[in-house]
User: Fold this.
Amino acid sequence: MTLITDTLSRAADTDAPLIPSLAERWSPRGYDPTAVIDESTLTTVLEAARWAPSASNLQPARFIVARRGSEQFAVVHAALVGFNRAWADAASVLIVNIADTTMNPGQDNPWASYDLGQAVAHLSIQAQHEGLHTHQMGGFDADAIVKAFELDVNLSVVSITALGVLGDVNALSADLLERESAPRTRKPLSELLLADA
Ligand SMILES: Cc1cc2nc3c(=O)[nH]c(=O)nc-3n(C[C@H](O)[C@H](O)[C@H](O)COP(=O)(O)O)c2cc1C
Assistant:
């Protein structure tokens, strides 16, 4: 059976209109293992992260950018848990998302992870706008990343983003194919609004 999991069929069924890059963003697993993202597009995607807002403009987001084929890509890929490792090797780039948790010397930045998340959200929407796709992952061994890249203690490794070009989903295992084509759902907006006066 040929499954169709293109951007159009995976787009969010929203209750109110969204800009296309938001409505069409989803987290695929089926990437083209031959696709190379050109350097200017990759810079544009990272620039979106750079221009995200942050508390006191501290800009705590840090990234390890690992292009497929590099030694660093192999290290980041190896740190993923099995169910992510199974598909993420076909991504063009793996980006490790890291928060600098220091505000002032000796003082933690309580918004570091929040601001990193905003930066990654900006990156993912810019990527979508460029015709690319992203899939964020929390399933990985953070200690392995800290060790391999000799990261300082103030750097918190939060997540990894796969960035790439949609590929042939039928190359995925049956299990991954099932997840890839599962209906996309969200809680109703009313459940999110604790007060709506
Ligand atoms: C912080 C974070 C961690 C995630 N971890 C994983 C993961 O380890 N593996 C995975 O396949 N998807 C992971 N996801 C993707 C979510 O499952 C996905 O965003 C969610 O199901 C909504 O689907 P959508 O992005 O297609 O709208 C993660 C997403 C985020 C934001």
Q: What stands out?
A: The first strand starts at residue 61 and ends at 67.
